[in-house]
Design goal:
It contains twelve helices and 14 strands. By secondary structure, it is of the alpha/beta class. It is globular, with a radius of gyration of 19 Å.
C-alpha cells in the first residue's frame, strides 16, 4: 500500500515521503481499516517536527483521525464487523495518511449516517475536544459570551458551532478576511480580525464592559496574555494548546484579583482515564449532527498525493477550515 512516512524529524513539507510499504495487520482487539478520508490536524504538524507529546519511533505515518471502512478484525473484537464505516483514531506508527491503517477497537466509533466521509472524519478530535471543554470543563451556559481564538481552525471552528448550539453568544477571533468570512459561515455572532482589530477593546464594548465568560484558547502566547484583560468576573480561560509556539506563564495573582479560573484540557487523557465519557460524547455529537445542529465545514478535499503540502500549509497557518485527504 501507499503511505506517507516521516523518516527524520522536521518541517512536514521536507520530511514527509510517499512510500510503498507492506499492508499492516490487525492484532487482538484491533481493526484493519481502509481509509476513506483523513483530515489534517495541528498534532500532525507537531508529530513531524518531533514536538508532540507522543513520539512514535521512526519511520512512522502521521494522521491522527479518520473515517474508514473495516476490512478485517483481530481477535476479541465485539463492537464492529467487516464493512462497518467508523471514525476515530489510528494506532501510531500507523497513522491515517495511508491507504490502510490500524485502529484499536476502543478508539473507533460508528460514523454518523448524516455525514459524508470527509465530514465524518473530522468529528472525533476537534468536536470531542470542544464538547469536553465547553460542557464538561467549563459548563458553558445559555446566554454566556464565549470568545474563541483561532476560530477558523480545526478545533476553534468546532467550538464556534458547539458554543452556538449551547445557546452562547460567540465571538470568533481570526487572522485575515477570508478566515473571518469562514467564521461567519460557522455561525459566530461577532468576528474579530486580530490583524487589524484589538479584540480586547471589542470584547469589552460588545459585553458592556463585562468581558467574556469563557475564553477558548488553542493558541497561547499573546492570545492568552490579552485574554486575561477581557475575561469576565468568575470567567473561565480554557487552555487547549499552544499553536503560537509560546507557552504562557500565567500570573496567578492576576487570576486571584480578577476572580477567574484557568482550566486545562487534554482530550487524550479521557482515552486513558474515562473511555466511557468519550463514547457518551460521540453519541451526543452524532445526535447533534443528525439533527443538523453541527456539521464540519470542509474547505478542501484533496488527494493522498497532496498530504505533505496540505499539512505544511496548516503548520504555516495559511489554511482555512478543515483540509481532508481522500486516499
Amino acid at each position: 500500500m501507499k503511505a506517507w512516512r516521516v523518516n527524520e524529524l522536521g518541517d512536514p513539507r521536507e520530511v514527509l515521503r510517499l512510500d510503498e510499504v507492506a499492508d499492516p495487520t490487525a492484532g487482538p482487539g484491533q481493526l484493519l481499516v481502509r481509509v476513506l478520508a483523513a483530515p489534517a490536524n495541528f498534532p500532525d504538524v507537531l508529530l513531524c517536527r518531533g514536538e508532540y507529546q507522543i513520539k512514535p519511533p521512526l519511520p512512522f505515518t502521521p494522521g491522527v483521525e479518520l473515517c474508514g471502512e473495516i476490512v478485517a478484525t483481530g481477535d476479541s473484537v465485539t463492537r464492529f464487523a467487516v464493512g462497518d464505516r467508523v471514525v476515530g483514531n489510528p494506532v501510531l506508527p500507523h497513522g491515517s495518511f495511508a491507504e490502510l491503517t490500524v485502529m484499536d477497537e476502543a478508539n473507533a466509533y460508528p460514523a454518523p449516517d448524516s455525514l459524508d466521509d470527509a465530514e465524518a472524519s473530522a468529528l472525533s478530535i476537534g468536536y470531542q475536544t470542544s464538547w469536553f471543554a465547553l460542557h464538561r470543563r467549563t459548563q458553558l451556559r445559555p446566554g454566556e459570551t464565549l470568545l474563541v481564538h483561532a476560530a477558523a481552525g480545526g478545533v476553534g471552528s468546532t467550538a464556534v458551532q458547539l458554543g452556538k448550539a449551547a445557546g452562547a453568544k460567540v465571538i470568533g477571533v481570526v487572522g485575515g478576511p477570508e478566515k473571518a468570512e469562514y467564521c461567519r459561515e460557522l455561525g459566530a455572532d461577532l468576528v474579530v480580525d486580530r490583524r487589524s482589530e484589538d479584540f480586547v477593546a471589542i470584547v469589552k464594548e460588545y459585553t458592556d464592559g463585562r468581558g467574556a465568560d469563557v475564553i477558548y484558547d488553542p493558541v497561547g502566547g499573546d492570545a492568552y496574555a490579552k485574554s486575561t484583560k477581557c475575561i469576565a468576573f468568575e470567567g473561565r480561560i480554557l487552555t487547549i494548546g499552544f499553536a503560537s509556539g509560546t507557552i504562557p506563564t500565567p500570573g496567578l495573582n492576576h487570576a486571584l484579583i480578577k476572580n477567574y479560573s484557568i482550566i486545562g484540557l487534554h482530550w487524550g487523557l479521557y482515552q486513558r482515564y474515562n473511555q466511557q465519557a468519550i463514547y457518551d460524547c460521540h453519541d451526543e455529537l452524532t445526535k447533534m449532527a443528525d439533527a443538523g445542529a453541527i456539521k464540519p465545514l470542509i474547505t478542501e478535499r484533496l488527494a493522498l498525493a497532496d498530504v505533505a503540502d496540505g499539512v505544511a500549509r496548516l503548520g504555516d497557518g495559511v489554511s482555512i477550515g478543515r483540509v481532508v485527504f481522500h486516499p
